[in-house]
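Section: Multi-chain targets

For targets with more than one molecule, the full set of components is provided together so that the structure can be written out for the assembly as a whole rather than chain by chain. Components appear in the order listed by the source. The example entry contains two components.
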Amino acid sequence: MSFSPDALTELSAAISARAGIAKNAVAAVRLGEDRHLTGMIWQADVVVVSEQSLPRKDEFELVVPGGSTLTAKLAGRDASTNIAILKTAGSMTAPSFAAAEAQMGTLALAFGADGEGSASARLGIVNFVGGEWHSRRGGLIDRRIVLDIELASREEGGPVFDAAGGCLGMSTFGPRGQVIVIPHATLARVVPQLIREGHVARGWLGVALHAVAVPDALRESADQNSGMMVMSVVENGPAAQAGIVAGDIILSVDGIAAQRFRKLARYFGSDSIGRRADVRLIRGGAVVTVQTTIAERQAA
Amino acid sequence: MSEAANDIGFAERLRVAVRADDPLRRNVLCKSVTEAGHVIVDEHDAADIVLADGGRPPEEVRNVVGLGIADDRLRGALPRDADARQIDAAIRAVAAGLVVRAPPSRDNGFGAMREADGHALLTPRELEVLAALAEGMTNKAIARRLDISLHTVKFHVESLFRKLSARTRTEAVAKAAERRRSDVIML
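Its structure, encoded as tokens over all components, is:
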């Protein structure tokens, strides 16, 4: 039985044509026997990968389109935006893709590397598009993009395209296995910084914090119901130099209430380095203010 | 009938050796194992099951239930934050000759920052009481340590149970530890 060409065969042919192009955009990052991750070929000597899944190693072996292998060195990683870059010794043919904005309800194609120089393809739709958000590590992600696509772990880190072939960004796993996209805009902002400096500069006080309720007796003088208790202080960090100790409850930094994580994440951007900040805190039952000088975050 | 039930109860009481470097953690694990009806034994030879926490995998992997240990040879492998029910189920399953694996944890995928919700936050005093609970201290001992009345200790413990929706002290300690792992932010 055979059908004459119709909408379905056309759709299939169109997807297959996209896949034929996209397979030149992915490289496999070998993790061991029969295991790999996907990387997105960003430029002739740079591959972008998902930071959360990249082992803490300095050197990797890549299988590039066509099947040849290349050695690549870790050139930068930023856990706050889940972006890492590998730099290859030899050069690859980098395809050029236009950036595209994700739109809810449109078709999306996600590609992974197959580990032998070709790709694997996934088709679904853009399930949800929201505004910018902050990751648990404080990084700013330009859009919340959720796909209704299932991804194998080896396919994480590959490019995601819309129907017109525009690049939406890099695929990765969110909580509970949800497949999300690190938007192209975020890649375009972070990757050049990583190429230049190997990390994304951020302001830093050198404290680990845990949210606590302010004791009833202090609520009035603190003028807020919750704060962030200092669990530990990094030796010689800005907080330690200002005399902040474990057990202090930070109420605000430069007027920003300590439990407003997102606002704080924004405040501690690269422009905050060197800035003097008043930290209001509870110590020994009294509210005191200490002055700190924000430093650049030390490599994690 | 009741005799048969007793027999089953007796058969299911296993001798468990608990290995954990952190004494607090060991306490918590021992408690949840005994609360599940098992007996703690010291020597590994006498144990039906070894419950091993974190760090390096034990040399002897037969009948070991590991918590947060990445070693495929283990008969039982649970995430480090497995709850008391999962630990009990894993101990019994491995003792019965089965292999236990937790589904791959995807909860640590790249997620959004959650802002603390004011309701369930613990106060510094409650955290102190919690630390004492983790050491297995009685209310009386806690009152002495923190220099507060027994009544106040009971008040804090009840508040902890409510905020953590825990029914036992062990559960409160476990739930708080879980929260602490996921909710610490670095600044």
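Chain B touches chain A at residues 106-116, 118, 121-127, 180, 183-187 (CB under 8 Å).
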